[in-house]
Amino acid sequence: MKYPNRLNLANLPTPLTPLKKFEVPNFKGKIWIKRDELTGIEVSGNKIRKLEFTIAYALENGCNTLITCGGLQSNHCRATAVLGARLGLKVHLILRGEKPAQLEGNLLLDYLAGAEISYLPQRDWQSHEDLAHELQRRYKKESSQAHFIPIGASDEIGLWGYIAACEELQQDFRAMSLKPDYIVTATGSGGTQGGLLVGAKLFELPGCIAAFNVSDDANYFEDKIMRDVSLWKQRYKQRLNEDELDIRTIEGYLGPGYGIADREVFKTIAELARTEGIFLDPVYTGKAFHGMVTELQKAEEGQLPGAKDIVFIHTGGLFGIFPQQGNFRLD
């Protein structure tokens, strides 16, 4: 595989390890965790894989400023802010919501890393890309060149992050003689899911890619991934029949809404931490892992039929625990 320009920012490869003590009723197989929360510390998680390609593209095009957007506790925005500080790039974040009275979690790290932040109320969020382009024009007047990175770095450039991760998974599977039935991930902006789908096709990985949505719905992700893959093919002159991609988004575990988890998700997070010392977050990985475990308990009646070996992509999000610490009851 010939990749475009890429920065070496992540600690790779990440480990692939089996769960040994966490038990799932009615499931006799094995769950493996691809530990992408270990790609770094301050920039841990899946976002850095995409940003290796996205920031390389920005630098290649003479940019000295990065503009991106997301929720108040966006893992992607935090990773961009920290990487910007390390690379000497200005970072301007557009965050959905009002500035809170107390800074914590990812938002605190954004400020500590020196990012400039514009808050955009939920009612105005549909105009966030317009604001980003306005900022680009403003920086140009100040003799700066700004690159706009969409939510989650999920576009045709960001797809390369998890295409490359699939090459890593191919090596993992060969080393362990592993042929998983499913590769499971959370999906919020579609980039990780899309990259896994394309990479699995290119590297002929075994198993089905199954994603649990933490925002929007299955129709949204199908449209988003098909659009990103089409643009990826055009930009990089790649051959791939996107109609052959099995875009499988499992619904039913979104809960009250994006970033809001119910009691059962917090219980699952605590149980995995207690039994394995692995920490999930209530926005992405906690919901997806809880959804996966729930479906596995249903056996052949669930949405993961025939599952024996499952690989769960741990996409990070540790700092998202702290703003929601009041939801954990540890008595």
Order of helices and strands: EEHEHEHEHEHEHEHEHHE
Number of helices: 9
List the domain count as a whole number: 2
Beta-strand portion reads: 15-25%
Mean pLDDT: 96
Instruction: Please give the alpha-carbon distance between the first and last residues.
Output: 51 Å
Q: If classified by CATH, what would the architecture of the largest domain be?
A: 3-Layer(aba) Sandwich
Question: What is the alpha-carbon Rg in Å?
Answer: 19 Å
CATH topology label of the largest domain: Rossmann fold
Structural class: alpha/beta
β-strand number: 10
Strand order of the largest sheet: 1-2-10-7-8-9
Which secondary structure elements does this structure contain, and how are they paired or packed?
Layout: E1 16-18, E2 30-34, H1 47-60, E3 65-71, H2 75-87, E4 90-96, H3 105-112, E5 116-120, H4 128-141, E6 146-149, H5 159-176, E7 182-187, H6 191-202, E8 208-213, H7 218-236, E9 248-250, H8 263-276, H9 285-297, E10 309-313
Parallel strand pairs: 2-10, 3-4, 3-6, 4-5, 7-8, 7-10, 8-9
Antiparallel strand pairs: 1-2
Walk me through the structure.
- Helix content is 38%, strand content 15%.
- The chain is an alpha/beta fold.
- The strands form 2 sheets. It has a 6-stranded mixed β-sheet.
- The longest helix is centred in the last third of the chain and has 19 residues.
- The protein is globular, with a radius of gyration of 19 Å.
- The protein starts with 15 loop residues before the first strand and ends in an 18-residue tail after the last strand.
- 46% of the residues are buried.
- The mean pLDDT is 96.
